[in-house]
Design goal:
The protein has helices at about 15-30, 40-45, 70-80; strands at about 1-5, 35-40, 55, 60-65. It is of the alpha+beta class. The protein has a single domain (about 1-80), classed as 3-Layer(aba) Sandwich (Glutaredoxin), CATH 3.40.30.10.
Length: about 80
């Protein structure tokens, strides 16, 4: 199982798109992912809020601001 963290506000369109791209690609590839959504204001205040939403894999930021392409998500999920 691959653990992925998504930080940001669920009402943000970029957050929603980022979430959907990850879930769609994981399903398409048959990869088991655990997507933890972090949207608590206190936790988000510890990161740079100008760079939200953020997608993290293994504690490393793999995307921020704009949603990644499906091809990029596929690459991350298959290389992990």
């Amino acid at each position: 199982m691959i653990s992925i963290h998504l930080l940001g506000s669920p009402t943000c369109p970029r957050y929603q798109r980022m979430r959907q791209v990850v879930l769609d690609e994981a399903q398409r590839l048959g990869v088991d992912v655990r997507l933890e959504e972090i949207n608590d204001v206190g936790r988000l205040a510890r990161v740079n809020p100008l760079h939200l939403p953020q997608l993290r894999l293994g504690g490393e930021i793999i995307a921020r601001g704009n949603p990644p392409s499906p091809a990029a998500v596929t690459r991350w999920l298959t290389e992990t």
